[in-house]
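Quick note —
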Amino acid sequence: MSINPDSLIMYTPDFIKQFRAQFPFYQNQTDKPISSVYLDNAATTHICQPALDAINHYYQFEHANVHRSSHPLAIGASNQFEAVRQQTAHWLNAIDKNEIVWTKGATEAANLIAHGLSKVHIKAGDEVIISLAEHHAHFVTWQQLAKYYNFNLKVVSLTQDLQIDLAHLSHLINPKTKAIAFCHVSNATGVIQPVDAILQLIKPHKQIVSIIDGSQAVNHIPINIQALNCDFYFFSAHKMHAGTGLGVCYGKQSWLNALPPYQFGGEMVKHVSLDDTQFNQLPFKFEAGTPNISAVIAFGATLKFLTQFQWQKIKVYENELMAYLLNELEQRKSINLLADDHLVGAVSFTVKDMHCKDASDILSQMGVALRAGSHCAMPLIQAICPQGSLRVSICGYTSVEDINYFLFCIDELNEFL
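Predicted structure written out below.
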């Protein structure tokens, strides 16, 4: 990665300090040493104060189930719940709010899509292509369904810079290909995948459904669903400063109408008789049971908060911080980067002559929180780094001081060796 040292960020801007102050995790750190450094944001981000306030307010003053009762409290909760669906559609630039399905997380979204397509679109002997870069939520789901429904799963390889190999992908596509599932950004390496180029390859093949796992992209890259023109896109709210237990599954209405319900129960039905059931309209036919209402409301508060804090400006800072981190890591001979280009939000590396688990344990004792191991991407890590790697992941509230302390600890680790 070519970097001009003179352009590297060397201090934390005031607007980032103001952004960071909106996270309770950092508000009580004045009496803690600088070593309380959280660099595991790809696993989950801290929740912002507006989201916490929204959760508390709902449970204290607005708590009622949605889409069921006709009393004012229930109507108010339902209206607020659906307003966030509209807000999310607008944030993604989706055509209609009914293209947004709430799930328990990205994992359930991946399962909803794959199970549905396996029942109505993919038959025995057909093929599904998945990339080597996928999270287990995507990879294992398709792997196991291929065995169950007797279709073939093809794995597209990666280039030396750990991007999906477009030449190999083009070679794999054939009339039997019914779906291509891939991530926007790799969970294990932080590498941005060539999403636009992949979708252009798919475009002439009308039978191919495009499915994108956007979990590691949504907090770092502006998402324009209409510009992407993919069939499905999904992510988890807890990856972008909201609560856990909520996923966003976007699907084109034509495909959502074609898919059968993923689960059965209340809310997803229109009429039930002794012999049969008529299912509800979109998006409710995929939302069986009482949803995670407070998490949805919190997500709406988070989207509003990010908009107010000039999200685009924060992304520029993140890119500068990543460039600074990469430049510093590249200067250290004990560090081997898995990838050094096309990165956003995260970078993975190994420490010479030290197992990643040992390095992680020592760094943890020094107050640095990061991820070590296979990062829920065993096929990828086994192929490129069998012993596992360390992953540092940043976001908008990560300070230059956080990175400097982490680098100090890496140097101490080297001295220890």
